[in-house]
Amino acid sequence: MGEEAVHFSVVDAKDCKQSAFEVGDKTYVICRSDDDLKTSAVKIHDKLTQTWLSPTILGEQPLLTKSQSVIPVSDEKILVIEKGVPLNESIWFLEIDTPFVKQQRKIKETEVVSWSKGVIGVGQKPVVISGPSGVGKGTLIAKLMKDYPSKFGFSVSHTTRSPREKEIDGVHYHFTERIKIEKDISEGKFLEFAHVHGNVYGTSIEAVESVTDEGKRCILDIDVQGARSVRASSLEAIFIFVCPPSFEELEKRLRARGTETEEQIQKRLRNAQAELDQSNEPGLFHHLLVNDDLETCYENLKKLLSLDDDQEDSDDFCKFKKYFYFHCVLMLHCVFSDGGSHYPSVNKEDKETASYSIVSKTDSEILLQSETNEGKNGAIHLLALDLSSLSGGAPGRTRGLKIGSVNSF
Ligand SMILES: Nc1ncnc2c1ncn2[C@@H]1O[C@H](COP(=O)(O)OP(=O)(O)OP(=O)(O)O)[C@@H](O)[C@H]1O
Ligand SMILES: Nc1nc2c(ncn2[C@@H]2O[C@H](COP(=O)(O)O)[C@@H](O)[C@H]2O)c(=O)[nH]1
């Protein structure tokens, strides 16, 4: 918009501090300055109007390095490989026209692009648990977390409501100010948010992604508005609605909990009716659970989540699973460097830096060439990045990347 033209000359995958790509009627330029590697800018040249745009950039930004390899993988996104960082830190997508970007463009009434970090392998689908206040969601989730600490992680929401007596900041909720949460929401840091019983509640992207990154299944305790927003997002999840055996019993539980004033109880009960009315809406919840007898309901929840009753989640078992998960991730990062006869040494802390350049692309596969880790006798080390099963994406991570070896030559 009346800005100075950014000089660029690159239309192919190439290493540079400015990478430009034509997608449709637009040219996207990713620029970074020499001295300040922490900031990148994206400029868009619209060929139809002959104008330059500075879009709003959403999402977690890549840890910028001095050199990148960049290529568009579809009309929706551009793949950016940062060099000189561990492989699991190096793969990023700049989303230029994904459903999330389209939606944000409408909301913000301005041009938008969004970063999303590429993650090797898929995480387990998060579980969204909804239901009226006082039905027992928190009680059921607490049992699940106690019995299966290595399997599940809780998505710690943000809320503007005041903490209850035994609630701990950062454990039960991130207690926050309205002005702060509104700012973070406007910066695209939240997967969903809603005004519930007079306060703002929201799930940050980091709350969900950090649990999945740990190899655990993320559990979200959110209201029906939140469930609806997550349903419409790029996050694939299982949606469960917990119902009370009767409205009278719900009221009894809310009162017995003793955490709300009479006025708040009345407000929660009014909202409960509206939530119950939506529980059967087609396409919203996958499962309905009635929480009459707590133990029965808990067993039914476990069945839904395919949990084996006999499997103990002892401390030793947890440690073993963490160890196993860690090494599976390392294996995925490993490459057969010698016709599959051995793995190259991989730093146990997974900090080994890598530098790969994009050398070719088909519809679903990108060929990467190592610049730093040559195979035997200086053979060229190639890696195939399979993009055919991507899931998620901005505002969260892009999961489902597969990396395979290609024989050195
Ligand atoms: N099956 C049950 N039978 C009797 N009491 C129950 C049952 N399940 C939970 N409770 C009790 O009901 C009260 C409300 O439960 P809980 O706090 O887990 O509800 P919640 O759905 O998480 O509410 P909120 O949405 O307000 O956080 C608690 O005192 C809990 O001990
Ligand atoms: N949409 C969201 N709803 C949330 C979130 N975290 C909690 N909740 C829901 O709020 C009510 C009230 O909770 P309380 O702790 O004040 O009793 C309850 O229905 C929760 O499910 C969130 O991040 N987003």
TrEMBL record:
One of its GO terms (molecular function) is GMP kinase activity. Transmembrane segments: none annotated. Gene3D superfamilies: Guanylate Kinase phosphate binding domain, P-loop containing nucleotide triphosphate hydrolases. It catalyses: GMP + ATP = GDP + ADP. GO terms for cellular component: cytosol. The keyword Transferase applies. Residues 124-306 form the Guanylate kinase-like domain. Keywords: ATP-binding, Kinase, Nucleotide-binding, Transferase. It is an enzyme of class 2 (transferase). PROSITE patterns: GUANYLATE_KINASE_1, GUANYLATE_KINASE_2. NCBIfam families: guanyl_kin. HAMAP family: Guanylate_kinase. This is Guanylate kinase 1. The lineage of its organism: Eukaryota, Viridiplantae, Streptophyta, Embryophyta, Tracheophyta. The gene is LOC100284281.
